[in-house]
Every structure is written in C-alpha cells, then in structure tokens.
Write a structure and sequence with these properties.
Blueprint lengths: L4 H7 L10 H17 L1 H4 L2 E7 L2 E6 L2 H9 L1 H10 L7 E6 L9 E3 L2 E3 L11 H25 L3 E2 L6 E2 L6 H21 L4 H8 L5 H25 L7 H14 L8 H8 L1 H12 L1
Parallel strand pairs: 2-3
Antiparallel strand pairs: 1-2, 4-5, 6-7
Helix pairs in contact: 1-2, 7-9, 9-10, 9-12, 11-12
Amino acid sequence: MLTPLSRAVGGWSPGTGRSKTPDEHALGAILSLWPAIVGEDVAKHTVPLERKGDALVVMTSSSAWSNQLSLLAGHIVRALSEAGIDGIERLRFRIGRVRRGPLGIVANGHVQAFESRAPVSSAATVTLEEAFLRFRERVDRGRDAKRADGWNPCTKCGAMLPEGNRCAPCATEDVEQRSTRVQRLMFDAPWLGYEGISELVEGLSKDEYEMNRATLLARWWEALERVRKTGKVSPGGLERQIASSYLLLKTGWEPDRITPLIARNELRDVYDLLYEKHHKT
C-alpha cells in the first residue's frame, strides 16, 4: 500500500536550512514512494532524479533498465497520481551508476549525491528480468484485487477506477484533443456555432463549447490589440482572418450579416489598419 503524500512529504527532511520549493516537496515524496511503487528490486537500479515540467526524470543503471521501465511508465504515472502527486504525465530516462542504499538529498529541485563508483553487477540482466517479472505480477495482483472490489478499467488506458470509465489523465487528454479541434473549427468556420460544431466533435458539451469560445475570443482580441499597438499586419493577412473569426464568434451571426459598419463598430480603430489601409496599398 502506498504511503499517503502528506506523510511522505512530512517525513522527508533535506536538511538544507531553507524553504523547499513545490518541486522539491514533490520529488522528496516521490523518492519516499518509489520502492513501494516499483518494488525493492527495481528501486535498487533506478532512482527519480528531477522533475522537468510534466516529466519525471529517472536515472537507471543501464539502457535495459530504461527500456523495461518505459514499458511500465503508465502504471508508475498512475500510481503517483493516486498517491496525490499531480502533474507528472511521462517518464524520461538517464543512464548512470545508481547508488545502492539510502537515496541522495533533494537540492534545487533534483537529487544530489546519488552516484556511486561501484560497478554494476554482471548479473544485472538476470536481476532485471526477475525484478520486472515481479513488478508485473504486483501490478496484475493489484488490478485483479480492484476488479474484485467492483472497480472498472479506464476504456482508454486500462487504469482501474472505482467509478466511471475514464481516468483523470485520459479525460484531460480527451478534453485537450476536443479543444484543439473545436478551436480549429471556430477559426475556419465560426458561423457553425454550437449546433454545427457539436455534430463534428463527438462528446462536446455546450459548456465546453462556450469555454473554448471565450478562450479564443480573448486570444483573438490580444492579437488584434497587437495590430493596434504596432500598426503592423502580416503579409498573408492572418490578422484579417482572426478579425473575421472574432466578429462571427462574438456576434454568432452568419457571415453575410456582418456589414462594414458592424465590423468598424466592433473592431474600432483596428478596422482601418486591417481593411482601409490594406485597400489603399
């Protein structure tokens, strides 16, 4: 059973005499949880090194360990999330001499004093196979136990869930993919509105549509404000396309209803820079 995040963080004491950053708190918790997540055998040949954005950098004792660990990266990321450590979506690997025994201290957001000059055992390949076999057995046992308790697998990645059919990382990825497609349609065909776009994007709710609409309107207005401040328009006319999308998204009208007067009233002095200046040149 994994140690709760609060207990792991509370028990981690780097002894630096200064306040720890959020990344250092999280890395300290990960170090404490690592043997419980991957098993003692794997932990002897791997060590969490630092966080870089949404990635956890892990040092391994050989490329074989890196390859094997990458196959189980999804389980590790889910286990960290279940333990209360958010924001890690993938693993990255470095090869080095991993210190046996106690892990190093956390300083400036990464592990220090983790290396050892002791050579890696020649029997590492056998140990690797045995270790990862035990790792997979532990994962399978945990999955079977959760299934017996009524948990269901995520329909996308297979993570076991107490309820629902999508885990949080997969649900977030779904939303991000929908948002990308919705905003592209809002740029290319903003007159479609919610009814039209929802027919093309499966699972799109009205609230999600409005959230994307508000996001895009704010982004487009920032782009138009840059035109006003600099007086510069791209040769390809991108800003005029943005202005058209902005007007149609804001009004919700068909393109033929947007007259020059309406456009001028909405865009104010940006209108002359985008259209009048363009026609004169």
